[in-house]
Amino acid sequence: MKGHTVADIVVIFKTLPTKESVVALSQRIIADFRENYPTGLQIADDVLMAPDSTGFDVISTQGTVRILISTISTNLKKLTSGLHLDSNAMKLHMGAIRHSRWFDDNASHSSNKMLVRLLKDLRNRFTGLNCLNPWMIDLLAHRSLLTNKQTLPIQIAYRRVIQLLAGGLFLPGSAGIIDPCETGNVRIQTLLTLEQQDLLCMTAQHLVRVMAHGGFIAVLNGNDNILKLKSINGIIFGDLQKAYVKQEGMVEEVDSTGAESEEVAMESA
Fold first, then answer.
1. What is d(CA 113, CA 75) in angstroms, rounded to the nearest whole number?
2. Between 218 and 158, where is the model more confident?
3. Which residues, 6 or more positions from 221, have their beta carbon under 8 angstroms from its beta carbon?
4. Mean pLDDT of the 61-81 span
5. pLDDT at residue number 39
6. Do 146 and 112 contact (CB within 8 A), yes or no?
């Protein structure tokens, strides 16, 4: 967790955004930084443009700010492919703003913020959890910590998240978690492929077994090597089997909005 100094900001254009206008914005931002912080902030000479030109990174010695571009809703239908920025990316960035506002209104409790940071650290250490995007983690933390008569201790909520995933919360047919920022009762696990859902559940099940037999510290500090453990404290673990095997030539259908929603809140995780 230490040293992650990346913050995201969504910039909404009132006009139709083009690559040229994004470049002009990046140059203006760098010029303003150098004018206001002539000695205290070292900014790179050039910004790093996203491959799809839907944003750019401003990099300094202290950290990185990712600028994500969007436009007002009335402009979305006016975007022309090849001339303007990608409309799907614009919609995702607008969705990130809704996510940020929801988090501020419903999940800004200090314990919840800490739990989110711990869960992101857990995701980064275990390959099977990599499919969890920041929005899923926000909702999982809120579901585990704050949807009780009393706020749970953070260590209990941390374990509860893993238990929920191990119990199949994000498997097909599960109640899952309904996205509070979308209409139509959209469940967030529909953003994952069947293979990702299965691997996520299987990874969480193994972590639950490790924690149940005194391996809580191993989960907090470990990585994928923990999944190779055959026993702990004299308890022998049986092998976990995949429930889903993708057939050759089979194409899975995933919700078109399944691209990872960007984090918007200025953070230093």
1. 34
2. 158
3. none
4. 87
5. 60
6. yes
